[in-house]
Amino acid sequence: MTTDAAALGTLPKPGRSLAGLVFAGQTGPVVVIVLAIVALWYAACLPMNGGLPSMPAGGTLAERYAAAWSLERPVLPSPHQILMELRVSTCGRLPEGEGWLTAFFSCEIRWSPRNLLFHGWVTLSSTLVGFGFGAALGILLAVAIVHVRSLEKSLMPWIISSQTIPILAVAPIIIVVLGSQGITGLIPKAIISAYLCFFPVTIGMVKGLNSPDVLQLDLMRTYHASQMQTLLKLRWPASVPFLFASLKVAIAISLVGAIVGELPTGAQAGLGARMLSGSYYGQTVQIWAALFAAAALAAVMVVVVGLVERVTLRLMGARR
């Protein structure tokens, strides 16, 4: 065996293929998937836009694709049209007399209702307020459900059934009821966001607070620990990973709630209002740009929650 092991140790290590190198980490697969989606997107532009009256009748396949990628009001805009709309709606129109690449990255942001960043901030403010309300409500409900057994049987079915009602039906009711009381603007949208995001926090925290096993709970009882001490020293630390997993879902859902809350109000500002105005005037590129801005905003918020999670767990001594 010693001889075999020595012989195996002298064998050259097999080389890794190009595909193995690309898919070794996380960046490679993500880039490949994104490139595949972009290629399919460009390919789908001609079938989707081919029937529009603004499309030229004849021409080669390349000319027809070039026309489909540059229509003013396409059914499916090309990715570079959305990118240009994002550039123009945040940094203004491209300056003349400069190279295209230099002009594209020269940005002069003007804070006005015409700027997409202004609309993003309006939606973000109601999202964060609703997320704060919803997360606090979800944590309080979870603590109450864990400590009061009757609440688990009486309250949990109502919490679950509350999410079966479509938010598109609930949002106008909340807007109308609060509007009749003179409450308009940020608060109704924040309440809709809180309505959506309290549910995952409640479910995650109930599971997290119940995660300590029976032996750990019995040990706390042998120490004559009160319910508050058991909560603070055992249940709460055990529930932190569940809390952050729930918060990542909740903050993305709260953004959806804020956008939905802007639709029935006829709001003049916000990403939802931007999408609505785009649908009124047939500006599909504007709709897609607002959609991409909302997706980027949600991704940034989830990343921020993830960073807070890493710092919190590191401070608690977790090894990740």
From TrEMBL:
Domain of life: Bacteria
CDD domains the record matches: TM_PBP2
Xref: SUPFAM superfamilies: MetI-like
Family matches, as Gene3D superfamilies: MetI-like
Residue span(s) of domain ABC transmembrane type-1: 120-309
Family label: Belongs to the binding-protein-dependent transport system permease family.
Membrane topology recorded in Swiss-Prot or TrEMBL: Multi-pass membrane protein
Subcellular localization, as worded in the UniProt entry: Cell membrane
Pfam family, one: BPD_transp_1
Protein name: ABC transporter permease
Coarse class of the protein's main subcellular location: membrane
Signal peptide: none
Keyword flag Zinc-finger: no
Swiss-Prot/TrEMBL GO biological process terms: transmembrane transport
Keyword Transmembrane: yes
Recorded GO CC terms: plasma membrane
Species this protein is from: Methyloraptor flagellatus
